[in-house]
Amino acid sequence: MISARKKRAISVNSWGFVLPALLLVGIFILYPVAKSLWFSFHSGQGAMMKFVGLGNFLRLTHDPVFQKALANTLIFLIVQVPIMIMLALILASALNMPGLRGRGFWRTAIFLPCVTSLVAYSVLFKSMFSYDGVVNHLLVGIGVIAEPISWLTDPFWAKGVIILAITWRWTGYNMIFYLAALQNIDKSIYEAARIDGISPTRQFFSITIPMLKPVILFTTVTSTIGTLQLFDETMNITLGGPADSTLTLSMYIYNLSFKFVPNFGYATTVSYFIVFMVAILAVIQFWLARERNA
């Protein structure tokens, strides 16, 4: 049996390992969360900060810029996430086909945008879709359009460019998860389905999709979180323009904190709204997945 002295020594040694981690969590997670919560009940910055209670949360209901940023973010979420998830699944299925030549090359090429410098990636997109960029030259050259399109100065097309940029960058990331999951499905299941005369299309929807449900849920949740926090592409390609047509909630937080007259309290309130949206959408997605599995 272990003596009381040895037990105390083990306890002290255990705390010696745990305490540094707890201190880091407290300094870099718990304290910022508590401080930001305190900010959300105040307005202004520094010595000019004053207590407003729930005033910041009430301000969200009649702030036209916030409502515009929220609408843009939801448009990106509703349009881009389903496209990216479906495209990632299709590409993963294509790369999983037996006998495919150049599998490694195509896998690397599709995944490459994920590890490319974001600044370089955004500058490339901005150059491609400028008025005299390669996209307009190509489309005019093959006769698709009669004259160049103002991709980045037209509100409708600017949204399309941002959606394309996000999809191009992150589809490969999701594809890797689907490809790994597809390669782990027992091949005997497909062999039994072929013996029973089940068509490849029905195999995909009746076998592949159900087997991929956990991965589909994971990629949907992470893509939703990423889109709700969308900042880099809009900041580097369109600066939220034209006329705030690509302004997102994260960009609005940045503007409130550093671009306009700083109001850290209201910026924190908007960030808590994003946290609330992420939590609600994640719960809904997990609930839907659970209901379908029941």
What's the quick description here?
With 294 residues, this protein is mainly α.
Topology:
Layout lengths: L3 H36 L2 E2 L6 E2 L3 H5 L4 H32 L7 H13 L2 H11 L5 H8 L13 H29 L3 H9 L4 H12 L1 H16 L3 H6 L11 H11 L4 H30 L1
Antiparallel strand pairs: 1-2
Helix pairs in contact: 1-13, 3-7, 3-10, 4-7, 10-13, 12-13
Instruction: Give the SSE string.
Output: HEEHHHHHHHHHHHH
What is the subunit organization of this protein?
A: single chain
What about the largest sheet?
Answer: 2 strands, antiparallel
Structural class given helices, strands, pairing?
A: mainly alpha
Mean pLDDT: 85
**Number of beta strands:** 2
* Helix content estimate: over 70%
By DSSP (H or I, 4+ residues per run), the number of helices equals 13
Q: Low-confidence runs (pLDDT<50, min 5 residues)?
A: none
- Radius of gyration, in Å, reads 25 Å
End-to-end distance, in Å? 48 Å
Sheet with most strands: strand arrangement: 1-2
> What sort of overall outline do the alpha carbons produce when their principal axes are compared?
globular
**SS strand fraction:** under 5%
